[in-house]
Structures are given as structure tokens and as C-alpha cells.
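Example record for the data management plan.
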Amino acid sequence: MSSPRVRPARPDDATAMARVHVRCWQQTYRGLMPDHVLDDPGFVDARQRLWTHVLAVQDDRGHRTAVATADDEIVGIAMSGPPVDDDAAWSRQLFVLYLDAAHHGTGAGPGLLEAVIGPEESAALWVAEPNPRAQAFYRKHGFTPDGATTVADGVTDLRMVRTPEA
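Corresponding structural encoding:
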């Protein structure tokens, strides 16, 4: 297995990105979300429609997307964009960062993060609670919880923010 490489996502990546997105949700959220959501036969198709749309309009909406590839296969995905939280005091929001579990610890996660949010940019994200591995990853990259939480689909998310020093 080769080391993952990170590159900008392209429109023809949508199908593979959808598969990775669903596989990572199944790896990460099993036990946190209902199985019928994670195993829905239409889940991959729904994510493919999402990624097809995002990749078609990303430049117009200020989105940045990236993929990690290993052996010519997409194994990770990331996307950021302008903040959507009403109280945003940061310049970017991380919406997606998923890496297939087989590639954890390879450096692809930090590469994906940096590809969609520059180290000098302030940013925020929402992460599942509990998800200690992801929270530790984000802490390592300068994000800290700010106390905000939300609940969607039975999963509690906490917000983490990063404000780089000037």
C-alpha cells in the first residue's frame, strides 16, 4: 500500500468520494447513529448527488475540496467553505474531513486539513461527541471546544474553533 497523496477534488471524483463518505460514516458513527441510517441502500446515491453538486459549484460558493488517494483510489475527503454559523468569528468552516480507517496515521488527515484550511486561517468545525480520535486530531491542529453544541439525527456535536496567532 502506497502512502496517501492529497490533491484538489475534481468533478469526476464524486462517485468515489460518495463511497468513502459513506464508508467512513459507517466506521465512525456505528453505535452513535441508527444502523438503518448508516445502512440505507440509497445512502451512497444521496452522497454522490451531494458531491456532484458541490464539485460543480464549489468555486462560486467559496468551497475548497480535496481528496487523499492511495494506489489510485480515493481514501479520504475534505471540504471547507465560508462560515455558516450565525455567530461566526472565523474565516473558514470545516464541513467534511473523513479518512478511511485503514489510512489513519499516514499523514493524510493533516494533508487534507491543510488542503482546505490554511494554517494561518481562523476556522471552526462540528465534531461528534463522543469521537475522541477526531477530537484529539483537531486539538493537535489548534482547535479547541468553544462550548457550543447541537443535536442532529440523535448525535450531539460540539463546536471546535481555531484562531491562529497573529
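Summary line stored alongside the record: The longest strand covers residues 73-81.
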